[in-house]
Structure to design on (240 residues):
């Protein structure tokens, strides 16, 4: 027997829609406590099938479900990232693309258990790319990392990370800086491959060292010549 109505839960949430055998069935809207969070879409004997889920944080998922988990094809909007692709038992899986809103950061390729796994292409915010193999959200195996020309690279200051995690690539452009690189130096601000650059102080100290060595060698030469001249005079006198 199928019917519709409204049901209020003990925690303050509610369901309004179709029912069958005491379970949500057909089209219905389920709202969380105090109106925070919502699922609107089709149901099958108590489980979501196709619809839009909005969490209290504002993150959303629009797509298919299976046994209460995201499964099939769907679009997730989470913070500054959007994922479009396949899902497997609640996780990003098989094939999909995740891209940043407002920047060029993006990963497109295969996934497994919510992480980049298999083969894919990651584009960083400065325009650099990595195309190759992945294992468990990390670049692993054969791949090609391409940097952008120095003059085109964007100036990016953000926390470092190994890769786009799931885009590990979320908070960074994938660039690993040399531990001795000063923050704010041209090498530290540039994306892509970072070349270790010497500061002005290092260059000055190197020049001073060279000057010191030159002076010491010059003085030692003078002393040597002076001692040689004295010995030569002594030898000449003894001969006379």
């Amino acid at each position: 027997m199928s019917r519709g109505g409204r049901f209020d839960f003990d925690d303050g949430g509610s369901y309004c829609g179709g029912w069958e055998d005491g379970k949500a069935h057909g089209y219905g809207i389920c709202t969380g406590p105090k109106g925070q969070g919502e699922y609107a879409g089709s149901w099958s004997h108590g489980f979501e099938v196709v619809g839009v889920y909005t969490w209290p944080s504002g993150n959303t998922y629009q797509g298919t479900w299976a046994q209460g988990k995201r499964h099939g094809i769907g679009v997730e909007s989470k913070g500054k990232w959007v994922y479009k692709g396949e899902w497997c038992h609640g996780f990003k899986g098989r094939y999909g693309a995740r891209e940043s809103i407002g920047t060029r950061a993006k990963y497109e390729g295969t996934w497994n258990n919510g992480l980049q796994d298999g083969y894919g292409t990651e584009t960083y915010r400065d325009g650099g790319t990595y195309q190759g193999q992945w294992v468990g959200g990390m670049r692993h195996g054969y791949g090609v990392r391409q940097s952008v020309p120095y003059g085109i690279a964007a100036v990016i200051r953000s926390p470092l990370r190994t890769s786009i995690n799931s885009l590990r690539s979320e908070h960074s452009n994938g660039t690993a800086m040399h531990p001795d690189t000063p923050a704010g130096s041209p090498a530290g601000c540039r994306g892509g491959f970072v070349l270790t650059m010497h500061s002005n102080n290092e260059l000055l100290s190197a020049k001073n060292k060279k000057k010191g060595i030159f002076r010491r060698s010059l003085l030692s030469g003078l002393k040597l010549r002076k001692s040689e001249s004295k010995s030569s005079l002594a030898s000449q006198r003894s001969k006379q």
Observations:
- The chain has a mean pLDDT of 74.
- Residues 116 and 167 are 8 Å apart (CA to CA).
- The radius of gyration is 34 Å.
